[in-house]
Amino acid sequence: MKYGLCNLSVIPLRLDPSNTSEMVSQLLYGEHFKIIEERNGWCYIRLAFDGYEGWIDHKQYTEISAEVYHILDEKPSKITMDIMEFITNEFSQLVPIPLGSHLNASPFLKHTHDGNVQENFHNKANLIRTALLYLNTPYLWGGKTPFGIDCSGFTQMVYKLNGFKLLRDAKQQATQGESLSFIEESEPGDLAFFDNNEGCIVHVGIIMNDNYIIHAHGKVRIDRLDHSGIFNLDTGKHTHQLRVIKKII
Length: 249
Hints:
single chain, five-stranded antiparallel sheet, 5 helices, 40% strand, globular
């Protein structure tokens, strides 16, 4: 088994081993992973954080030992808390890294960092404050940064920045936590899931106070939530059909 580490600001994780293939997620700086398969200059990997799998270009990571992989697994996470920060690499060059990057690996990469780091995680009450950091971020399928994010990447990152683990996709996240029967039972920070006409979970957002929801749809935005679903405040129409509300924390 081989192991790797994301030593760049962000790396696309693709469905197939090709630069033209769909991006299903992203690796942020400092994330570590197992290499399951190698093929024609591509690596099929499994992320340590959430077990998500996909293909990355073999030129876009650095290999680490099993020992370093397990050290990173065991250490409490140090995560960047600014929209964009910089690390200094071994050549004294500045490398930008986005919100939510992992800094535990910096010593192994011989990188240094002087920005804000979160080590003592907040409680559930801080989730909405964190979610607002991403407000107006453009929607990007597979994205996980303040420069492009999808609905489940948004919820995963907000929870991650507060020390809680969510799976990557909306349908996976819907398997976590406790189901609530009514919106009135929910608290700010709970998750609302939405399905399509075939009954498949296709969207997720974070519930706020007073029947508002923050979610990634075109951009990270705030809309109304009712028993039918999401009511878009710009168009005056419902855009998503409510399926279930989950209390994760």
